[in-house]
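Hi everyone, sorry if this is the wrong subforum. Our group has a chain we'd like a structural model of before ordering constructs, and none of us has done structure prediction before. Sequence below.
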Amino acid sequence: TKDTFGGEVEKSTKMEDMKDHVDFWWDSPKKGRIGIDVKGIRKNDDGELDDTIFWVEFRNNPGLPGWIYGKEEYIAIKTFKQIVYIKREVLKEYAEKKLGKKQAVTTRPKEFFVPYTRSYWGHNDLTMKVPMSDIIELASRKDKKGKSNGFFAVF
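Answer:
Right subforum, don't worry. Here is the predicted structure as tokens:
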């Protein structure tokens, strides 16, 4: 982030990371101090890294609010070719709309937009797989005030 966009970067404290879901703080030259949560490339059902899928966490293993409800302003999602920075609030609204009131399943779903919990392992989590293409599209758009929903750092 610093090398691509300027400013200064500071690692969050352990408490900020665990409680607020902020991995680092970026002192942006244009926007000031911004909390960012970093997400890596996830594995598909074959155990291979796959940057076409992304998992949104609504509730973490102990049952506390997931990172989608954190205090970070942006989620930075790594793909093989770029890092997609999307406003957390934009991703949250999208994900909640897709989640709706659907019943969670306990078997890892192959389809998108199916709530998934690992309660059979003793977890109290709730996640949902979404297509990365949707996130890239969302990050490319502007809101009603003409402000960007996100930005990109291409490798």
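For your construct planning: The radius of gyration is 16 Å. The chain is about 20% helix and 35% strand.
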